[in-house]
Amino acid sequence: MSDPFTGVYPVYENQFKVGAPGTTASNLDAIADMEGFSVSFDNGVEEWTPMNSEGWTRRLMTAKSVTISVKGKRNVGDDGNDYIAGLAFKNGREAEADFAWTFPDGTVVTFANAVINVTAIGAADSTNVAPLEFDVMSNGKPTVTPAV
Fold it and tell me: N or C end of the chain, less CB within 10 A?
């Protein structure tokens, strides 16, 4: 039998959890009925062209941020889903949460005080299941815990 942590894997093996800022990782709640996600990295790269490089540009990555865009269905009564939905009308520090992304190999990326930007909640065609869509935006450096 092959090792389950090698090779390709289905996307659903990624898992997300959320909770109030300061919540211990073991007490974060899973978010029910999420269907898909995308990840984008915004990297700040400084460029310069010194005289001794004969016209070739030098570069150094000097900044990073991560945005995870999640789409799914609104599930009233699920703790994680309710928590995200409850941030829809919040501003400032009230729109922050602790967020954990667990990869299929067991690596966990934890975002303390991530900004949760709810982008869609409940609105769709009358015969659709109500959506819940949001962006998780890093707010400082995340903690990456490699799989054991």
Answer: N
Report yes or no on 122 lying in a domain: yes
Which residues, at least 6 apart from 131, have a Cβ–Cβ distance to it below 8 Å? 71, 72, 73, 74, 120, 121, 122, 123, 124
- What's 36's domain CATH number? 2.40.30
69 Cβ contact partners less than 8 Å away, ≥ 6 residues apart:
37, 38, 39, 40, 119, 133, 134, 135, 136
Q: Which domain holds residue 99?
A: 11-42+70-145
pLDDT digits (tens, 9 = 90+) for 138-147: 999 999 999 8
Question: The pTM is what?
Answer: 0.89
